[in-house]
Design brief:
Blueprint: H1 8-19, H2 31-46, E1 55-63, E2 69-77, E3 85-89, H3 99-113, E4 117-120, H4 132-146, H5 148-151, E5 158-163, H6 168-178, E6 185-189, H7 212-223, E7 250-255, H8 261-273, E8 278-283, H9 290-293, H10 298-312
Parallel strand pairs: 3-4, 3-5, 5-6, 6-7, 7-8
Antiparallel strand pairs: 1-2, 2-4
Helix pairs in contact: 2-3, 4-6
């Protein structure tokens, strides 16, 4: 299997540059060191995100069930929205990412779509394990619904969206279903859904930009001794869910060279078998994080257009 023709040369150049690096990559299971690498790499990536001069950001806070204050950021283009809104759960393998780091991306989405975004500073693993991140995000969803009128939001037009480890939004959709809270959509961008996906597939391992070792590190940080056991809650690992009925309609996007490929397909199938509408995009030659590799590629233009279409249709 080969990379998309516009992504391959960029990845080859990056691999050549990395070959000369004398700093060792974090060992399997070293979540805090991997966090440092992820956050540093993402800081460099978002520097290329176009500016969003019409978008303003307002900080808010919500108190989680255990009394912890969770920071929120509300992004609006031109001071008003469309009635719809997106609760955004940032990626970085459930162990990294910050509101500040993802700020340019939130502004970019709000600028492109005109739909306001609420970014959630959920608590990270390994300091906070199990369902904490999902519960933090669910608290943010409830906060937005409570403040919908003052923010100009129609509570029936709220979606949750996340990339990679931000598949915590899938956990949040489960909590919403379980608590009788309606969601307009769950938008899952190459989502990290299954803790059992830690054994390298010989076909996918050579093209993995998010590796099987990385995946083990993220899930082990989140689940601790519960990793790959029957004690795991589906609110922490969405692929463990058995009953998909009543979940929010989904948009799922993944590449053929992403180690999350099969779990994304399986999740989409389970939704459809349960009678839940699901739109699945399966991109040939695309590895994990394909939209960051070559922003000018035809592939990236297609995926951004699809995301904008789905968001503006809320």
């Amino acid at each position: 299997m080969k990379f998309d023709r516009e992504l391959g040369p960029v990845l080859a150049a990056e691999a050549q540059a990395a070959a000369g690096c004398t700093v060792p990559f974090p060992e399997r299971g070293d979540a805090l060191s991997l966090r440092t690498v992820i956050d540093g790499a993402f800081k460099a990536l978002v520097a290329a995100v176009p500016g969003a001069p019409e978008v303003t950001m307002t900080p808010y806070t919500v108190t989680a069930d255990d009394g912890t204050d969770i920071s929120l950021r509300w992004y609006v283009r031109g001071g008003s929205g469309t009635g719809a809104a997106v609760v955004y759960v940032h990626g970085s393998g459930k162990i990294g990412g910050t509101l500040e780091g993802f700020d340019p991306l939130m502004r970019h989405y709000a600028q492109l779509t005109g739909v306001p975004f609420l970014a959630v500073d959920y608590r990270l693993a390994p300091e906070h394990q199990g369902t904490t991140a999902a519960e933090d995000t669910f608290a943010a969803l409830l906060w937005l619904r409570t403040h919908a009128d003052e923010l100009g939001v129609d509570s029936s037009r709220i979606a949750v969206m996340g990339d990679s480890g931000g598949a915590i939004c899938a956990d949040t959709a489960i909590l919403a279903r379980n608590n009788g809270i309606g969601l307009a959509r769950q938008i899952l961008i190459y989502p990290m859904l299954d803790d059992r996906n830690t054994v390298p597939d010989p076909v996918l391992a050579p093209t993995a930009t998010w590796t099987y070792d990385n995946n083990y590190t993220g899930w082990a940080a989140l689940l601790g001794d519960d990793l790959d056991t029957d004690r795991v809650s589906p609110v922490a690992v969405p692929a463990r869910l058995r009953d998909f009925t009543g979940l929010a309609p989904a948009y799922i996007e993944v590449g053929t060279l992403d180690i999350f490929r099969d779990e994304s397909i399986s999740f989409a199938q389970n939704l459809l078998w349960a009678g839940v509408e699901c739109e699945l995009h399966f991109h040939p030659g695309a590895p994990h994080g394909h939209d960051w590799i070559n922003p000018d590629s035809a592939l990236n233009k297609r995926v951004i257009a699809d995301r904008v279409r789905v968001i503006t249709a809320l």
